[in-house]
Amino acid sequence: MGSGVPPLDDKSLLKSKAYVNGQWVDAKSGKTFEVHDPATHKLIGTMPEFDSADTEAAISAAAAALPSFRKTTGRERSRMLRKWYQLMMDNQEDLAKLITWENGKPMADARGEVAYAAGFFEWFSEEAPRLYGDTIPASVAGNRVFTVKEPVGVCGLITPWNFPAAMITRKIGPALAAGCTVVAKSPGETPFTAAALAELAERAGIPKGVVNIITALENTPQVGETICESDTVRKVSFTGSTRVGKLLMKQSSSTMKKLSFELGGNAPFIVFDDADLESAVAGAIACKFRSSGQTCVCANRIYVQKGIYEEFARAFTEKVKGFKVGYGYDEGITHGPLIHEAAIKKVESHVKDAESHGGKVLIGGQKLPDLGSNFFQPTVIRDMTSDMALAKEETFGPVAGLFPFDTEADVVKMANASEVGLAGYFFSKDLQRVYRVAEALEVGMIGVNTGLISDAGSPFGGVKHSGLGREGSKYGIDEYINIKTVTLGGIGPLQGS
C-alpha cells in the first residue's frame, strides 16, 4: 500500500478485479480505470472497466445460481450471512483501512462504518428464517387461503461512494436473506472495499453466482442501463442522487421491475428555545459534520429559534474550533478530505453564495491547499436566508448554515419547503411539541433530541423526491420478496357426515 497508508494484515483482501460467478475477472475488453486516494491523489490501483456485455455475463451468472439458492432454507441462508458478518468483524481493521484509503474518512469513522455495515448481515441473518406467510379466513365456505413469501429473483444493486461498505451490505443482506441472487455495482470512486467484501463472501461459503460484484467508472451509465433494462433482473435498488434515480426509474419501466430508491436529502435540523442547548449543539455537530458532511442524512439547514440563536451560534462555533482536519490515518484527525474536486467546488460555491446574500462566516470558509486540493475547512455561517443556494440544494460538505426562526409554524413551513424529504431532526423538551412537529415534518425519518438515527433495525428511507421503499429493519426484506396467494377450494364438510 502507498506511503503513509498502513499495510493490510491480510493482503489477500486487496483485489483488483471484479467478482463474477465465483471468479475474479477482468473486463472482456481488458480496459481498466484508476482509483486515487482523495487525500493525496496517489494511485491506489486499477479496476476492470465493465461494459454492457460484462454486465450481462454477471446477470446470467446470478440467474443460473438462482434456482438452487432460492431452494435453500432460511436457516441455511441465515448461517451464511452470520458467517459473513463474523468475517467482517474479524477483519474490521483491514476493511477500515481500505475505506479510509479510497474514501478519505478518518479511521475512527471507518471502523464505525464497518461495524454498522456488518450489522446489516447480522440483522438479516436473523430475519431469513422468519419469512412468515399468513393464513387468511376465506369468505367462501370450503375454501382455504394462505400466502407464501418468495424471492423476487435476480436483483441489481447500485451503490454510492460515501459508505463503501454499508451501502452495499444494506442491500445484499436482505436480498440474500430472501433467497435472491445479486449483481452489485460498486462505486467507481471506492470499489476496493466492495471487492474485499466479495472475498469474505467466498470465505463465508456463499455459493458461486449468488453474489456478483461488478466495477465501472466511465461506463457506469451504460452498466446501470443494462441492469435496468434487463428482463432477467426483477428488482433494482439504488442509492444516490435524485436525478440519477429518476433516470433509472425511467429505464426500468419497460420491464416492470420492483424498485427501491434512496435518493437525495436536504435535512432540516431545528433547535427550539426550550431545547437542552448542550445536547442540541452536540447533536448538530454529529449530524452535520459526520464524514465531513458527505451523508444523505446530514443536517443541511440548521434552524435555531431566535431566543437561543446567539448562544447556540457561539457554542456551536466553539465546538467546530476543536476539529482537526487531515489525513484519515493520522492520530487525532476528526475530518478528512472531500471525495473529489466537484465536491469542493459545490461547497465553495455555497459559501460564496451565502456571503453574497448577507451570510456571515463565523469559522472556516476556505480551502486547505497545504493539505491537498480536496480539503476544506469545517465552516459555520450565520444569518442564513431561504433565498440562498444552501437552503435549496444539498451541500454534501462541511458547511453548517444557521437560519433564525420565530415560531413553530414558521419553521415547519421552511423545513417542508423542499422537493425532497429524507431525514429531519429537532430538539425540544416539550412533549406536545415533539408530537406536533414530528407529525408535521414531511420526511421519512426523524431524530428527536438526537443527531444520529441510522440503525440496522430501523427503517431507512424517504418521501417525496427522496425515493421509495425502506432499507434495514423488518420492512427491508419486503423489498426483495413477492407474496404469493394460494386458494385451496372444494374442501367441504367431513366425508360421511
Automatic annotation (TrEMBL):
EC number: 1.2.1.16
Stored InterPro entries: Ald_DH/histidinol_DH (IPR016161), Ald_DH_C (IPR016163), Ald_DH_CS_CYS (IPR016160), Ald_DH_CS_GLU (IPR029510), Ald_DH_N (IPR016162), Aldehyde_DH_dom (IPR015590), Aldehyde_DH_Superfamily (IPR050740), Succ_semiAld_DH (IPR010102)
Alphabetic keyword roster: Oxidoreductase
Name of the featured protein: Succinate-semialdehyde dehydrogenase
Family to which this protein belongs: Belongs to the aldehyde dehydrogenase family.
Pfam families: Aldedh
Catalyzed reactions per annotation: succinate semialdehyde + NAD(+) + H2O = succinate + NADH + 2 H(+); succinate semialdehyde + NADP(+) + H2O = succinate + NADPH + 2 H(+)
NCBIfam families (alphabetical): SSADH
SUPFAM superfamilies membership: ALDH-like
Gene Ontology process terms (BP): gamma-aminobutyric acid catabolic process
Metabolic or biological pathway, per its Swiss-Prot or TrEMBL entry: Amino-acid degradation; 4-aminobutanoate degradation
Molecular functions per Gene Ontology: succinate-semialdehyde dehydrogenase (NAD+) activity
Active site, per annotation: 262
Top-level EC class as recorded in UniProt: oxidoreductase
Sequence ranges assigned to domain Aldehyde dehydrogenase in this UniProt record: 24-486
A GO cellular component entry from the record: cytoplasm
